[in-house]
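hey can u run this one w/ magnesium ion bound, need the C-alpha cells asap thx
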Amino acid sequence: MTQMASTSALPRLLLLAPPGAGKGTQGRRLAELFGVTHIATGDLLREHVATATPVGREAKSYMDAGELVPDPLVLTLVLDRIGGEPPLDGFVLDGFPRTVAQAEAAMRWAVDSDRTFHAVVSLEVPTPELIRRLLERGRASGRADDNEVTIAERLRVYEVKTAPLLAFYARRGLLLEIDGSGDPDLVFSRISEALTRLGVSS
Ligand code: AP5
Ligand code: MG
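ok here u go:
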C-alpha cells in the first residue's frame, strides 16, 4: 500500500538513520518548524532509566550494551504518546521504528487511526564521521552508550535490524534520502527543501 502525502494535515514524519547521523538535532528543528511534537524513543527511554521506572529498569541493560530494547516495550511507549482520543495529529518520530516488527505495527496504527505517515527522512553520513561525532559527544556529555565498544555494537545493530527499513519505506514511496554530512544548518535546509518538493511545508 502506498501512502500519499497530504497537505491538509500536520506533518507526520519519521527519522530513520544510524547512531550519530543527526536524528535528534534535525528532529528538534523539524518539530519546531512545523509546530509538532518531537518524540525520540532514545530520550524517552533514557528518562525512564534516569528515574528508575519499571520500563527503565528493563531497558537499561539493552541500552548499555547497544542492543535494541524489546519491541513490545518500545511499542507501548510510542503508542502511549501518539495514541489517545483523538490520536496525535502531527509529530516527528526519531529513532522509531527500528525493526520490521515495529514498522509493521506503526503502519497498522497509522492506518487504523487515519494518521498515515507523510515521509521517512533518512540521513546518510559516512561511518567514520558517525563514530567521530559520537565519541566527541561521549567526551563532552558522558552519554553512557557513547563509548567505542558500544558505538560499534549500535552501528552493527543498525545495519542488521534497522537498515532493512529503508527498502520497506522506499517500496511504499515514503523514503527521502538526505545527505546528512556538513553543517547542521545545511542538512536542515536539504531536508526542508525535500519535504517542500513532496508537498510537506510549514
Ligand atoms: P537513540 O537515543 O535513538 O540513539 P541512536 O540511534 O544511537 O542515535 P543518537 O541519539 O546517538 O544519534 P542521533 O542520530 O540522534 O544524532 P544526534 O542529533 O544526537 O537510542 C539509544 C538506545 O535506545 C538504542 O541503542 C536502543 O537501546 C534504545 N532504543 C531507542 N529507540 C529504540 C527503538 N525504536 N527500538 C528499540 N530500542 C530503541 O547527533 C549526534 C552528535 O553529533 C551530537 O553531538 C550532535 O551535536 C552532533 N551532530 C549532529 N549533526 C551534526 C552535523 N551535521 N555535523 C556535526 N555534528 C553533528
Ligand atoms: Mg538521538
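Residues 12-39+90-195 form a domain with the Rossmann fold fold (CATH 3.40.50.300). anyway lmk if its weird
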